[in-house]
Design brief:
0% of the residues lie in helices and 49% in strands. With 113 residues, the chain is mainly beta.
């Protein structure tokens, strides 16, 4: 299992943008990767996934606004977040794997004016 570290969270205005990064301790070239989020009082939910081949899937709430990408040479996964809304406020977690899963510690995103 790889170790994951998220970064890039912070406080942004509604309509703003943020780019989250997930750095893995080892190769992720053959691993399904994903971003999840957990808002206060809610369960953790899927944001986006990306396959080893680069195919992506998004939650309906973020389609057209968020883009997941990966750079296997850097053992990293990214989440570009545009047109942010207050309801995007959550702790965002990086996930590696499907059957054997690794999670990062999370990075806080707050969207507020």
């Amino acid at each position: 299992q790889v170790q994951l570290v998220e970064s890039g969270g912070g406080l942004v205005q509604p309509g703003g943008s943020l780019r989250l990064s997930c750095a893995a301790s080892g190769s992720i070239a053959s691993i399904m990767m994903g971003w999840y989020r957990q808002a206060p009082g809610k369960q953790r939910e899927l944001v986006a996934t990306i396959t080893s081949g680069g195919g992506s899937n998004y939650a309906d709430a973020v389609k057209g606004r968020f883009t997941i990408s990966r750079d296997n040479a850097k053992n990293s996964v990214y989440l570009q977040m545009n047109s942010l809304k207050p309801e995007d406020t959550a702790v965002y977690y990086c996930r590696a794997g499907v059957f054997r899963v690794s999670w990062g510690q999370g990075t806080q995103v707050i969207v507020s004016s």
